[in-house]
Design brief:
Distance between the termini: 28 Å
CATH architecture of the largest domain: 3-Layer(aba) Sandwich
Largest sheet: 7 strands, parallel
Number of strands: 12
Helix content: 25-40%
Number of domains: 2
CATH superfamily of the largest domain: NAD(P)-binding Rossmann-like Domain
Bound molecules: NADP nicotinamide-adenine-dinucleotide phosphate, glyoxylic acid
Radius of gyration: 21 Å
Strand order of the largest sheet: 8-7-6-9-10-11-12
Length: 313
C-alpha cells in the first residue's frame, strides 16, 4: 500500500511525517521518484504533471492538496473512475476568513488611501462609514465563503451570499442561481459595496468577474478575488478601475502565476496584489483530512468531500 506525493509547490516532509506517524504501514514516495507504478494506491497532489495520475494503474483515491480542483479537472487523462477528494480543513478555512476580513476592513477603513497620504506627509481625515453602512457580497457560499460571511456578519456588515443552492448562515441574506444571467445574482450585485469572490473555477464561473458584472455593482465598489485568476477578465477590471466604476481591488490569484513582472496590476495605484497566499494548506492541520480519508477507504466507509466531476467542484 503506497502513497505518492506529487507537488512542486509544497514541501513533502511535514506531510509525509504526519501521514506515516498515523499510518505506519503506508509506504510513501515523492514525485518524480515514482518507482513501480503498480504499487501506488493513493496520490496526494497539487498541479501534478498532466498524465501522471493516468499512468498509475492501481490508483484508488486522489487527494487534492487544495480546495480548488480546477487544475486537476482540466487534465483530459485524469482517470475517470478514481474518486477525487478536495481539501477541506479548518486551517484553510480560518486562513481564508482572516484574508477576507483583513481586505474588507482595509478597503472599508480606507487603509490604502491613508498609506498613500502618509507617503506625502498629508494629514487629511476622510469621511468614514460604519460597517453596518457598507454591504459585502460573497460569491460562493461553500466551506470558505460561508465562514467568511459569518465572520463579516459578526463585525456588523450587512452580508449577501450567492451560491447554486441557497445557504442558511445567520446574519447573511441568501441568493441562489447557477449562472450570472439568473435573477439571484442580478438582484444581489447592485447592493454590494464590496464583492468577494470565493467560487470554484468551472465552465459556469469562468470569466464571471467581467465588464457586465462590474457595471451591475454600485459605482465605486471594491473587489476581492481570492478564488482563481480564471474568474477575472483582467482587461475589464483595468477598464472599470480607470473609469472609477471599481474603486479598488485586492487580487490574490491570476491568469498567469507568478504574475509577470511587467503586468499592469503590479504598480496600479488601486490594486493590492498578494501571491496566491490568501489561504495555504498546512500539513499540521490538513494532513488529518488525508489520514481520515485513507482510513475510511481502507475500512470501506464512504469518502467525504468528494468532487462531483459533472458539477466541476
Ligand atoms: P466549496 O465548498 O465547493 O464551495 C463552492 C461554493 O460555490 C458553493 O457554495 C457552491 O454552491 C458555489 N457555486 C459553485 N458553482 C456555482 C455557480 N455556477 N453559481 C453559483 N454558485 C456556485 O469550495 P470552497 O472550499 O469554499 O473553495 C472555493 C474556492 O476557493 C476553491 O475552489 C478555490 O478555487 C478557492 N481557494 C483559493 C485559495 C487561495 O489561497 N487563493 C485557497 C483555497 C481555496 P452550492 O453550495 O450550492 O454547491
Ligand atoms: C488554493 O488555491 C486552494 O485551492 O486550496
Amino acid at each position: 500500500m503506497t502513497l505518492l506525493f506529487a507537488s512542486t509547490f509544497d514541501d513533502p516532509s511535514p506531510w509525509l511525517a504526519e501521514i506515516t506517524r498515523a499510518l505506519p504501514a503506508l509506504e510513501t514516495r515523492i514525485y518524480p521518484d515514482v518507482g513501480e507504478r503498480a504499487d501506488i494506491r493513493y496520490a496526494l497532489v497539487w498541479k501534478p504533471e498532466p498524465g501522471l495520475l493516468a499512468s498509475l494503474p492501481n490508483l484508488e483515491v486522489i487527494f487534492s492538496l487544495g480546495a480548488g480542483v480546477d487544475a486537476l479537472l482540466v487534465d483530459p487523462t485524469l482517470p475517470p473512475g478514481v474518486p477525487l477528494v478536495r481539501m477541506v480543513d479548518h486551517g484553510l478555512t480560518e486562513g481564508m476568513t482572516e484574508y477576507v476580513v483583513l481586505h474588507v476592513l482595509a478597503w472599508h477603513r480606507q487603509l490604502h488611501a491613508y498609506r498613500s497620504q502618509q507617503g506625502e506627509s498629508r494629514w487629511r481625515p476622510r469621511a468614514e462609514l460604519l460597517a453596518r453602512e457598507r454591504t459585502v457580497g460573497i460569491l460562493g457560499m461553500g466551506t470558505l465563503g460561508s465562514d467568511a460571511a459569518a465572520a463579516l456578519a459578526t463585525l456588523r456588515f450587512p452580508v449577501l451570499g450567492w451560491s447554486r443552492t441557497p445557504k442558511s448562515v445567520p446574519g447573511v441574506q441568501a441568493f441562489a442561481g447557477g449562472s450570472a444571467t439568473e435573477a439571484g445574482l442580478g438582484e444581489m450585485l447592485p447592493r454590494c459595496d464590496i464583492l468577494v469572490n470565493l467560487l470554484p473555477l468551472t465552465p459556469a464561473t469562468l470569466g464571471i468577474l467581467n465588464r457586465r458584472l462590474f457595471a451591475a455593482l454600485p459605482r465605486g465598489a471594491y473587489l476581492i478575488n481570492a478564488a482563481r485568476g480564471g474568474h477575472l477578465v483582467e482587461d475589464d477590471l483595468l477598464a472599470a478601475l480607470d473609469a472609477g466604476q471599481i474603486a479598488g481591488a485586492t487580487l490574490d490569484v491570476f491568469h498567469r502565476e507568478p504574475l509577470p513582472p511587467d503586468h499592469p496590476f503590479w504598480h496600479h495605484p488601486k490594486v493590492v496584489v498578494t501571491p496566491h497566499t490568501a489561504s495555504v494548506t498546512h500539513a499540521r492541520t490538513a494532513a488529518a483530512a488525508v489520514i481520515d480519508g485513507i482510513r475510511r477507504h481502507r475500512a470501506g466507509q464512504p469518502l467525504v468531500n468528494l468532487v462531483d466531476r459533472t458539477r466541476g467542484y
